[in-house]
Amino acid sequence: MSARFNLMDNEIAAKFGQRFANASLVITQSTLPKATQELVSLRASQINGCGFCVDMHTKEAAAAGEPPVRVNMVAAWREATVFTDAERAALALAEEATRLADTHQGVSDETWAQVRKHYDDDQIAALVGLIALINAANRMNVIVRNPAGSYEPGMFAALTG
């Protein structure tokens, strides 16, 4: 399987990708826990059916030391006992913000209250930015049908700078 279009071989797409990666630095350098960042990215990618990003965030989470049980349970986080209340709030936010069209209100007041309970303003800003970025990345990869399976942890680190 090959992509419909190679985003790295096109000058405009490559420039966009570099700026996109630079925007993600704001999030990775925030106080939002790395585990939360990977879990949220993985869950949004699962919902959006982005195999490339599921591959990436599964492997990045493992490389960051996440136990397999937590990575494997992200899709069923509501029934899993391996996530903290803060992580559950972040995963709920990720789901509701990814599925905006499923409800007229977007993110529920209940979910927002849980996020406010567990995260400070800087972490919330990082969460909102992260969810926006991962949804955009999912859409780009799904549109061009980027195949999954070949991602290696850290392989896009050179894009930032």
UniProtKB/TrEMBL annotation:
<dbReference type="Pfam" id="PF02627">
    <property type="entry name" value="CMD"/>
</dbReference>
<protein>
    <submittedName>
        <fullName>AhpD family alkylhydroperoxidase</fullName>
    </submittedName>
</protein>
<dbReference type="InterPro" id="IPR029032">
    <property type="entry name" value="AhpD-like"/>
</dbReference>
<dbReference type="InterPro" id="IPR004675">
    <property type="entry name" value="AhpD_core"/>
</dbReference>
<dbReference type="InterPro" id="IPR003779">
    <property type="entry name" value="CMD-like"/>
</dbReference>
<feature type="domain" description="Carboxymuconolactone decarboxylase-like">
    <location>
        <begin position="22"/>
        <end position="96"/>
    </location>
</feature>
